[in-house]
Amino acid sequence: MKEKVLETIRKYKLIENGDKLVLAVSGGPDSMAMLNLLYKLKNEKGINFNFCVAHVNHMIRKEAKDDEEYVRNYCLQNKIDFYSKSIDVQKLANNNKVGTEEAGRYARYKFFDEILEKTGSNKVAIAHNKNDKAETIIMNIMRGSGITGLKGIEPRRDKYIRPLIECERFEIENYCKEEKLDPRIDKTNFENTYTRNKIRNIVIPYVKKEFNPNIIETLNRLSELVIDEEAYIEKQVEEVYNEILIKENLREIILDLKSFNNQEKVIKSRIILYTITRLFGNSKGIGKVHIEDILKLCKNNIGNKYLTPNKNMKILLKNHKIYFVREN
């Protein structure tokens, strides 16, 4: 498994000389395998990188404090810098009227970013694996997220890297046994309360038994194909965007309406999302209905008409141009 992880690191250039990583470690099998593997690779393979460990106590399970101490002790024994934080995730969820899964994810990533800045690190390593990726793809299909959702979890996205993304869960569990790591087991993973747990404990075992025993590998192959095709489409979108761009600044982006309308629908839809992302940093909250409304507005080509997909954004037609405007 060590060689497989090293191959993944090299294949996707996850870790390079001089990198300083924050390892997100819960104490479970996945994150402990990642911690142990990177500790060994750092010392055995001559990769010039350093790392520290960040742990979040969600304050939901009574065993959470023991999980924290377990990770802390591993770090003490191996002289690894350790950072932890206790966050009342249930309270955070209630205050923000979101689910505990969403609140927990927000709390974790916020803390990881804090440690990234505090330690002068440049990447955060997350212990997602092949099974997690397959589960995410199924969740995205059920949400109707479109082609992009079929990518699942990518090996690298911005500053976040996933060294175990090409390892299956059984490999990770076997590695933990071989290394006598005795990781902490979160019993809530076996409770079918959350959507991911239902997919992990009910849907995938059923598909394995009744349809395809290699469903994890099949979904991962699908993901690789989609990632390659998405990369090509994104490149085409960027090229067309640059061709039809008239003006771009922090407040607005202006595109040539006629050139926009001459594109295929799939490219036009992608350009809308691409433009909004450039202006706002992301396209969160922009769904299929918004894209269809914008396409219809542009097709009808009636001047001085506009849309407001949300309170911060206005999209209007004027003088044969499309204006994407930041309102606030």
3D architecture notes:
With 328 residues, this protein is of the alpha/beta class. The protein has 2 domains: 2-222, Rossmann fold, CATH 3.40.50.620; 249-326, Uridine Diphospho-n-acetylenolpyruvylglucosamine Reductase, domain 3, CATH 3.30.465. It contains 12 helices and 11 strands. The strands form 2 sheets. It has a 6-stranded mixed β-sheet with strand order 3-2-1-4-6-5, with helices on both faces. Strands 7-8-11-10-9 form a 5-stranded antiparallel β-sheet. Helix 2 links the parallel strand 1 (19-24) and strand 2. Helix 6 crosses helix 8, helix 6 crosses helix 9 and helix 11 crosses helix 12 (288-300). The longest helix is centred in the last third of the chain and has 30 residues, at 215-244. The radius of gyration is 23 Å and the shape is elongated. The termini are far apart. The model has no long low-confidence stretch (mean pLDDT 93).
Quick description:
With 328 residues, the protein is α/β, with parallel strands linked by helices.
Query: What's the alpha carbon Rg, rounded to whole Å?
Result: 23 Å
Corresponding CATH architecture of the largest domain: 3-Layer(aba) Sandwich
Secondary-structure-derived class: alpha/beta
Strand content: 15-25%
What is the general shape? Answer: elongated
CATH topology term of the largest domain? Rossmann fold
Mean pLDDT: 93
The helix fraction, in percent, is 40-55%
The overall strand count is: 11
